[in-house]
Amino acid sequence: MARVLIVDDAAFTRRMLTDMVGAKHEICGEACNGLEAIEKYKLLKPDIVTMDITMPEMHGIDAMEEILDYDGNAKVLICSAIGHRQKVLEAMKKGARDFVVKPFQKEQILDAITRILQ
């Protein structure tokens, strides 16, 4: 069972991810923007982070880069809208371990987490 930090600006999406991922893993925290994600990562030290790209305060890619600067072994799963193909590719080049496209299914998320943790 992994400890997961859920990062998304939409409360509905955070809730949905919590329900999906929480079936097999421990949700150790949530963040609603990139700045909060960095703070929570440092405080909670999760095994994996699900990260939205487009958020207020700081985008997910920038937050991911700061998290990776802090911990080069951080594992980030990008959870992005279908229209963000270029941003997803950018995130993968900058260190994201995998991605899923919204709207996603429970098995997609859980399979991606399993791949990343192996």
TrEMBL record:
The modification 4-aspartylphosphate is found at residue 52. The keyword Phosphoprotein applies. It comes from the Bacteria. GO terms for biological process: phosphorelay signal transduction system. Pfam families: Response_reg (PF00072). Residues 3-117 form the Response regulatory domain. This is Response regulator.
